[in-house]
Amino acid sequence: MNKLKILILVTRIALGGLFVYAGAQKFIPKPPRPAAEQGVELPDHVVKIKSMIGGLKGTGYFWPQLGVAEIVCGLLLISQLYALLGAVMLVPLSLNIFLFHLYLEPHEVGELIQTGFYLLINMALLAYDYPKLKIAFLTK
């Protein structure tokens, strides 16, 4: 096996493991945080984040569905046999995670770089398998 194939294998396993872990975290209940003091006003970005995540959790179905999607995509990447399918399915998830940090937490540069790196890795995996994707999408 050449070095590029080994790098792709390790990258798929690492990204897949990351998303399996992140998806599993959606099912672990978090202890409630103490309520903020009445006179304290939250920063605007915190209010937006709480509204968004609260809305996703408030539906009763979307937050667990997101966790299942992350776990499934991660397992597909780890499997190697269906890694291309996992990488394709992961595009909207990784893009949304990156955009969440770009628009709602732009001051958190470390997290922005980290999530941008995950998106970039996902795109690199798709670029590696481009010949297979080309057959599926560019038929004559």
UniProtKB/TrEMBL annotation:
<keyword id="KW-0472">Membrane</keyword>
<dbReference type="GO" id="GO:0016020">
    <property type="term" value="C:membrane"/>
</dbReference>
<protein>
    <submittedName>
        <fullName>DoxX protein</fullName>
    </submittedName>
</protein>
<feature type="transmembrane region" description="Helical">
    <location>
        <begin position="112"/>
        <end position="130"/>
    </location>
</feature>
<dbReference type="InterPro" id="IPR032808">
    <property type="entry name" value="DoxX"/>
</dbReference>
<feature type="transmembrane region" description="Helical">
    <location>
        <begin position="6"/>
        <end position="24"/>
    </location>
</feature>
<feature type="transmembrane region" description="Helical">
    <location>
        <begin position="81"/>
        <end position="100"/>
    </location>
</feature>
<keyword id="KW-1133">Transmembrane helix</keyword>
<dbReference type="Pfam" id="PF07681">
    <property type="entry name" value="DoxX"/>
</dbReference>
<keyword id="KW-0812">Transmembrane</keyword>
